[in-house]
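User: I'm preparing a small set of examples for a lab meeting where we compare how different chains pack in three dimensions. I only have the primary sequence for this one, and I'd like the structure in token form so I can line it up with the others. Please keep the answer compact; I'll paste it straight into my notes.
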Amino acid sequence: MSLRDDGTTAQLHGISNAWMPIGATIFELASPAVPGDATSRFHARFGDGGYMVILQASDLEPVRRRLDDAGVTIDWEIDYPDAKELHLSNASVGGTLLAIDWAATPDHWRWAGPDWPSHIRTHIAGEILAAEISVPDPARAAARWAEVVGGPLTPRPQGVVELALDRGALRFVPSETHGRGRLTGVDVSAGPAALVGTSVTVAGLQFRFVEPSTPSHWWEEPASHVPGAAV
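Assistant: Understood. Below is the structure token output for the 231-residue chain.
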């Protein structure tokens, strides 16, 4: 764990959270902190599980132009000299909450603490490689996300549609049990080969161990957005 909420996030957003590196990507664990607010009501209705996908971009200006062209509303924005974050309106995007970040250097991710890379451990998991979003209409949701973040779409068996990122992917799967949509799983690269094909569930989010990507760290190759997850 690289950072634990000191009460600021609870006061501003009604959640208590902690940040944990999964290899070279970041996982946010959050829980409702204000009884009766929107977050608490959502949790009471749907239970444990993922709530947000966070992507990192190398330049936010083309992202802003794409958002304008797609008619996406920015609900909330954080602006520091070394880090910026755009929280997009779920009504504008759908599926699950989406945030797009920028950092002065790829491994400087302010929200996870000033020394988060020192907490990286890769003996179990190397990084988040894909996020699974369960929605009633995967084709429609995936097409909308492609408008918002770019990338090609690939139909998969059983009604699944995959959106490729510069590193990793977003996978939209059919489900009628998660309202208009929810983050329900992530793929993580396995440290030991014996873990490939296995899974574990943490706070309602399924982690599936898959083959590692090359290179082993996303910042070793050019990329405009890479996956992260919050639950």
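A couple of notes for your slides: Residues 138-149 form the longest helix (12 residues). The domain at 3-230 is CATH 2.60.40.4320 (Immunoglobulin-like).

User: Perfect, thanks.
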